[in-house]
C-alpha cells in the first residue's frame, strides 16, 4: 500500500484547502478513499453522526500534479483511511503561500498521512514543515460499509435558494428552535419552517426551479404523476443543516436537494471539480 | 404598521435588549418598547409613528409583553450585516389581546412570516421623573462618553456620577479592585452642548445595571444626563437612523441604596 501526491499550483492548493475546510465542518471523523483517479471523503450514517451521511468526490487530476497510488491488492487497487479532517485542514493552513505540498502515506509508530509543506524562505534552501496526521487503515472486509449511497426515491427535487440567504435565515432560526422543517414542491417553491411554544417562523422561497431527472430505464419518473403544488416535507436537526450551509466557503455551481417525504433530505452541491452529497434523515 | 427598512427598528431595540422580555405599547404617536430589571432600571425605546411608512392603532393604545430576544431574531432573520442597497421591508400586525404579533419581512423576493406569542403586560415602573423637578442637566456629544463607558472598570460595583456647578463639574468615578478611577469633563469642553447644574450632587448607581446603556450610547449622537432631588438618573439618547430620522432611547435608574455615609 503506497500513496504519494504533490500539489504545486497555488490555486489548486487553495481550492483543495477550501474543500477540506468544508469537510472538516461537516464531520469530526471521516473516511478518505483513494483510487487511481479520484479521492472520496465519506461519512457513513451511523447513529454517532446523528444519522447524517456525506459523500464527497473529487478528481485527483484537477488538483494534484503528481499522484501515485498502490492499493491493498491488485484487484482492489484502493486505499481506505480513517482520519480527522480538521487535522488535515490545520496542516493545510500553513500552506497558504507554499511552493509545494507533498502528501505521503507513512508509518511512523502508526500509519500517518505526512503533509510536507515547502515554504519560501529568504535563504536558498527552502523551509519544510511536516505535519504527521495519524490515520486508521480500514481493512478490505469493511469496505462495503462505505459504498456510494444511491439517490433516494425522492418525492420532490428542487434547486436551493441563494446559500447566503438560506444560511442567514437558518442561523437565526437556530436561536429559536432545534428542529426545522424543509418543504418544497415541483413548482419551484420551498419553505423553511420552525415552530415552538413561543414563536412560529416560515420563510418562503419562490421561483427556485426544479431540476429535471432523466430516469435511467426510460419509464416515467415517479414525480411525473405528482401534483405540482403539493409539498414534500421533512423535519430535520437544524444544527446539521446549518453545518452544511456554514461550511460552504465558495458558491457552488449547482445546489439542489431531494426530499423524501418525512424520511430524508438529500443535498447535492456541485462545484467545477468536486461534488458533495449530504444526507440528513428526518426526525419523527 | 409597515416599515421599509427593518433595521430602523431592530437597531433601536438592540439598544434596550438587556432582558429577555419587553413590554410594547402602541399609541397613535408611535411605538414604545420598555425593558426593566431589578425594579431599579428601565429602558425605553421610542419609535415615532412618523418613522413608519404606515402606522395605525385601532384603539387608543395597545399593550402586550413579548420576548425581545425572539422579536430581534425575527426582525434580523435575513442577517444583521447591512449590505448597501439591500434592506428588509417589515409589516407588523397585532389583532388584540391574546393574539400573537405577526411580522411579515421581505428581502430580495424572499418572504418570512413570523408569529410571536404575546403575554399579559406587567406593571411598569413609574419613575415619576419630570422635567420640572430636574436638579442637574448636562447634554453631551456621545463620542465623548463612548470610550469612557466602554472602558468602565467592571470590578467596581457602582458608577458614581458627580454633577456640580463648581469643579469637578461632571465626574464619572469607579472603585474597583485595582483602585479608583475618576473621569472629569470640564464645563467648557467642546463636547458639552448644554450645562445646567444648580446643585452639587453625587450619586451612585449599580454599574451592572447601567452597563447595557453603552449600546444605546454607541448608536447615539447626543446624550442628556439629568438627575432629580432623589438622585434618580435619566439618560436620554438621541439616535439618528440610516435615513437621518431621529429616535430616542431613555434609561432611568435608581440610585444605589448602599451608599456609605462616610463617602458623602
Automatic annotation (TrEMBL), chain A:
Keyword terms of this UniProt record: Cytoplasm, DNA damage, Nucleus
A matching Pfam family: Hus1
Subcellular location per the Swiss-Prot or TrEMBL entry: Cytoplasm, Cytosol; Nucleus
GO biological process: double-strand break repair via homologous recombination; meiotic DNA integrity checkpoint signaling; mitotic DNA replication checkpoint signaling; mitotic intra-S DNA damage checkpoint signaling; nucleotide-excision repair; response to radiation; telomere maintenance
Cellular compartments per GO CC: checkpoint clamp complex; cytosol; nucleolus; site of double-strand break
Signal peptide (residue range): none
Keyword DNA damage belongs to the record: yes
Classification via InterPro entries: DNA_clamp_sf, HUS1, HUS1/Mec3
Known function: Component of the 9-1-1 cell-cycle checkpoint response complex that plays a major role in DNA repair. The 9-1-1 complex is recruited to DNA lesion upon damage by the RAD17-replication factor C (RFC) clamp loader complex. Acts then as a sliding clamp platform on DNA for several proteins involved in long-patch base excision repair (LP-BER).
Subunit structure: Component of the toroidal 9-1-1 (RAD9-RAD1-HUS1) complex, composed of RAD9A, RAD1 and HUS1. The 9-1-1 complex associates with LIG1, POLB, FEN1, RAD17, HDAC1, RPA1 and RPA2. The 9-1-1 complex associates with the RAD17-RFC complex. HUS1 interacts with POLB, HDAC1, FEN1, PCNA and RAD9B. HUS1 does not interact with RAD17. Interacts with DNAJC7.
Family listed: Belongs to the HUS1 family.
The protein, known as: Checkpoint protein
UniProt gene name: HUS1
UniProtKB/TrEMBL annotation, chain B:
Subcellular location: Nucleus
UniProt keyword list: DNA damage, DNA repair, Nucleus
GO terms, biological process: cellular response to ionizing radiation; DNA damage checkpoint signaling; DNA repair; meiotic recombination checkpoint signaling
GO CC terms: checkpoint clamp complex; nucleoplasm
Pfam families per record: Rad1
Keyword Plastid: no
Oxidoreductase as UniProt keyword: no
InterPro entries, per database record: Cell_cycle_checkpoint_Rad1, DNA_clamp_sf, Rad1_Rec1_Rad17
Recorded family membership: Belongs to the rad1 family.
Function: Component of the 9-1-1 cell-cycle checkpoint response complex that plays a major role in DNA repair. The 9-1-1 complex is recruited to DNA lesion upon damage by the RAD17-replication factor C (RFC) clamp loader complex. Acts then as a sliding clamp platform on DNA for several proteins involved in long-patch base excision repair (LP-BER).
Quaternary structure and interacting proteins, as annotated: Component of the toroidal 9-1-1 (RAD9-RAD1-HUS1) complex, composed of RAD9A, RAD1 and HUS1. The 9-1-1 complex associates with LIG1, POLB, FEN1, RAD17, HDAC1, RPA1 and RPA2. The 9-1-1 complex associates with the RAD17-RFC complex. RAD1 interacts with POLB, FEN1, HUS1, HUS1B, RAD9A and RAD9B. Interacts with DNAJC7. Interacts with RHNO1; interaction is direct.
Name the record gives this protein: Cell cycle checkpoint protein RAD1
UniProt organism field: Ficedula albicollis
Amino acid at each position: 500500500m503506497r500513496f504519494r501526491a504533490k500539489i504545486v499550483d497555488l490555486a489548486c492548493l487553495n481550492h483543495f484547502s477550501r474543500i477540506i475546510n468544508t469537510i472538516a465542518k461537516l464531520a469530526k471523523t471521516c473516511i478518505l478513499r483513494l483510487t487511481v483517479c479520484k479521492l472520496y471523503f465519506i461519512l457513513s450514517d451511523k447513529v454517532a453522526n446523528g444519522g447524517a451521511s456525506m459523500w464527497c468526490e473529487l478528481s485527483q487530476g484537477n488538483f494534484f500534479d503528481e499522484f501515485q497510488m498502490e492499493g491493498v491488492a491488485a484487484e482492489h487497487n484502493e486505499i481506505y483511511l480513517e482520519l480527522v479532517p480538521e487535522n488535515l485542514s490545520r496542516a493545510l493552513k500553513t500552506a497558504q503561500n507554499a511552493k509545494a505540498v507533498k502528501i505521503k502515506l507513512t508509518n511512523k509508530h502508526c500509519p500517518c498521512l505526512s503533509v510536507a509543506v515547502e515554504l519560501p524562505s529568504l535563504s536558498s534552501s527552502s523551509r519544510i514543515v511536516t505535519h504527521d496526521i495519524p490515520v486508521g487503515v480500514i481493512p478490505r472486509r469493511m469496505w462495503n460499509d462505505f459504498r456510494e449511497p444511491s439517490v433516494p426515491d425522492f418525492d420532490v427535487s428542487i434547486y436551493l435558494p441563494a446559500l447566503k440567504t438560506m444560511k442567514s435565515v437558518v442561523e437565526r432560526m437556530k436561536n429559536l428552535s432545534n428542529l426545522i422543517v424543509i418543504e418544497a414542491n415541483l413548482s419551484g417553491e420551498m419553505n423553511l419552517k420552525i415552530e415552538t411554544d413561543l414563536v412560529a417562523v416560515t420563510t418562503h422561497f419562490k421561483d427556485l426551479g426544479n431540476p429535471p431527472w432523466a430516469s435511467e430505464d426510460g419509464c416515467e419518473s415517479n414525480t411525473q404523476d405528482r401534483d405540482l403544488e403539493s409539498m414534500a416535507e421533512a423535519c430535520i436537526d437544524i444544527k446539521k443543516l446549518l453545518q452544511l450551509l456554514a461550511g460552504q466557503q465558495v458558491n457552488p455551481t449547482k445546489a439542489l436537494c431531494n426530499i423524501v417525504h418525512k424520511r430524508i433530505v438529500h443535498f447535492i452541491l456541485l462545484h467545477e471539480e468536486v461534488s458533495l452529497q449530504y444526507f440528513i434523515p428526518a426526525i419523527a | 404598521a409597515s416599515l421599509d427598512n427593518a433595521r430602523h427598528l431592530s437597531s433601536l431595540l438592540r439598544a434596550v435588549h438587556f432582558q429577555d422580555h419587553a413590554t410594547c405599547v402602541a399609541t397613535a404617536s408611535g411605538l414604545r418598547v420598555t425593558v426593566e430589571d431589578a425594579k431599579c432600571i428601565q429602558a425605553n425605546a421610542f419609535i415615532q409613528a412618523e418613522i413608519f411608512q404606515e402606522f395605525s392603532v385601532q384603539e387608543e393604545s395597545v399593550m402586550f409583553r413579548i420576548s425581545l430576544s425572539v422579536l430581534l431574531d425575527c426582525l434580523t432573520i435575513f442577517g444583521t450585516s447591512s449590505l448597501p442597497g439591500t434592506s428588509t421591508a417589515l409589516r407588523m400586525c397585532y389583532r388584540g389581546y391574546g393574539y400573537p404579533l405577526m411580522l411579515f419581512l421581505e428581502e430580495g423576493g424572499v418572504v418570512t412570516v413570523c408569529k410571536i406569542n404575546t403575554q399579559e403586560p406587567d406593571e411598569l415602573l413609574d419613575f415619576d421623573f419630570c422635567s420640572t423637578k430636574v436638579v442637574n442637566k448636562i447634554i453631551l456629544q456621545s463620542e465623548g462618553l463612548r470610550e469612557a463607558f466602554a472602558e468602565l472598570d467592571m470590578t467596581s460595583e457602582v458608577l458614581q456620577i458627580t454633577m456640580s456647578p463648581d469643579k469637578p463639574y461632571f465626574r464619572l468615578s469607579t472603585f474597583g479592585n485595582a483602585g479608583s478611577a475618576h473621569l472629569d469633563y470640564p464645563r467648557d469642553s467642546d463636547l458639552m452642548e448644554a450645562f445646567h447644574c444648580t446643585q452639587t450632587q453625587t450619586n451612585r448607581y449599580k454599574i451592572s445595571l447601567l452597563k447595557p446603556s453603552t449600546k444605546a450610547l454607541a448608536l447615539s449622537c447626543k446624550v442628556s444626563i439629568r438627575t432629580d432631588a432623589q438622585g434618580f438618573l435619566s439618560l436620554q439618547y438621541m439616535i439618528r437612523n440610516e435615513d437621518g430620522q431621529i429616535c430616542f432611547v431613555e434609561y432611568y435608574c435608581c440610585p444605589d441604596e448602599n451608599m456609605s455615609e462616610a463617602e458623602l
